[in-house]
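Suppose a colleague, Dr. K., hands you the sequence of a protein chain of 151 amino acids and asks what its three-dimensional shape might be. Before reaching for any lab equipment, you can write down a predicted structure in token form. Begin with the sequence itself:
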Amino acid sequence: MLGEARPDAPSWRPVVAWTFFFSLLGVVSAMRRSGRAKAYGRPRAPYWVAFLATAVAGAAFWSFLVVDVAMPIHRSNVESAATAAVQAKVIGDGRIEESVGTKVTSGGCVATGDRGSDGLRAYDCTFRLADGRSAAVHIKADTRGNWETAK
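The predicted structure, expressed as tokens, is then:
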């Protein structure tokens, strides 16, 4: 009966939301709500438990999202741009036309391996020539499209 006149403790759910989405800023919500709970004569622990549990779970979630989702997408975009740069330079710099003796009408390159520690990646490039023939070359190139024939 003595506790009936006291107001209800504030909800701990906003602490979870603030902590999950804004990380350590959730401590502000936990401090305010636990202070209000103390003033009402209610326990303060639920707010700190919610903060700590959500901070750990949130850190795991956001780490997973960055490492397993965002970084691979970024790497894929970088490698797609590098492949486009390689194709543009291989076709545009004239070395292929010079070596085959005729004009290159179209062509493309496909990566055949991962980028090495030297920053180079292997590509197989095929070309359609103006005289109807086709040509192929195996090259290594960096991310800017600078290439050399692979040995």
